Amino acid sequence: MHQIIPILDKIAFLAFIVTTMFGTGLKLTVQQIWQPLHNIRLVVLSLLTNFVLVPLFVYLLVLVIPVNEPVKDGLIIMALASGPPALPKLAQIVKGNLAFSTGLMMMLMFGTIFYMPIVLPLVLQGVEVNSWDIAKPLILMMLTPLGIGLLIKAKYENIALNIQIITFKISNFGLLLGLGMRLIVHFNEIIILLKTGVIFVCAIFIIFSFTVGYLLGGPGIDTQRVLGVGTAQRNFAAALLIGTSNFDDPNVISVIMVTSLLMMISVLILGKKLPELHQGQGVDLEKVEVS
C-alpha cells in the first residue's frame, strides 16, 4: 500500500496538469491568450509581484523569523519559482480570466527558467541550476498538450467542444486524487511543521503572496483573482526539481511539498469565498466570468 500511494500521486499530478493544459487549449485561441498581455501595466506589475516583491518578502521573512536551514532553503526556492502549472485550473475555480491565466502562466514559467539559475545561487550557496533541466518537464507536460489543444480548437471546433467535458472531469479527478494522496504522504511532515510553528510562516507567505497579487492585478476583478491565486500558488514542479537535485536533506523537499499543498488548499477555499464576497458587494459576476 505504501508503494502504491506515491505512484497514484504521480499519476494524478500528471493527469491533472496534462488534461488542464489540453483542456485550456480546447477553449481558447492563441489570440485570446496573447490579448491580455497587451496591457503593459498589468504585465509589468505581474513580473514585479512574482520576481521581486514575493521573493524579497520571503527572504526577509526567514531572516526575521528564526527557522532552521532546510525550512529556509525550501521557502526561498518556492518564492523564486513562478508560473504555477495549475494556474488555468485555479482561474476556473475562482472564476477568473482564463485567457489571462494561460498567458500569465507561460510568461512567468519562461521567466522562471531564466530567473532561477541567476538568482538562486546568489541567495543559497552551493546551489547549481540548469535552465534546460527546468524547461524540459514544463515543455513536455504543459506547452505540448496546450499546443495540441489549440490546434484541435482551430481546426476542429466541434470536436474540441465534445472533448472539453471529458478533459474537465479528468482534470478535476486528478486534482482531488492528487490532493488526497499528498495529504496522506505528507501527513507526518504537516504535523511536524505545525508543532514547530513553521506552518504559520508558510501561512504568512501565502497570505502576502495572494494579497499583493490581488491588489496589483487590475484592471478588473477577473484579472485580480488570477494574479492573486497565480502569485499565491508557486511553480512547485520547478521548485521540486531544484530541491531534489541540489539538496540531500529530505526536509527541504518536505517543506516544498507541504507549502505547495497548503497553497493549493488555500486557493480552493478562496475559490469558494471570492465569488460570494463579490456577490455580497453587488458585483455582476456574469460580466467577468470566462465561459
From TrEMBL:
InterPro entries: BilAc:Na_symport/Acr3, Bilac:Na_transpt, Na+/solute_symporter_sf. It is found in: Membrane. It comes from the Bacteria. Keywords: Membrane, Transmembrane, Transmembrane helix. The chain crosses the membrane at residues 12-30, 42-65, 98-122, 134-153, 159-180, 192-216, 252-271. Signal peptide: none annotated. It is a multi-pass membrane protein. It holds the Pfam family SBF. GO terms for cellular component: membrane. PANTHER family: P3 PROTEIN-RELATED, SODIUM-BILE ACID COTRANSPORTER. This is Bile acid:sodium symporter. It comes from Dolichospermum compactum NIES-806.
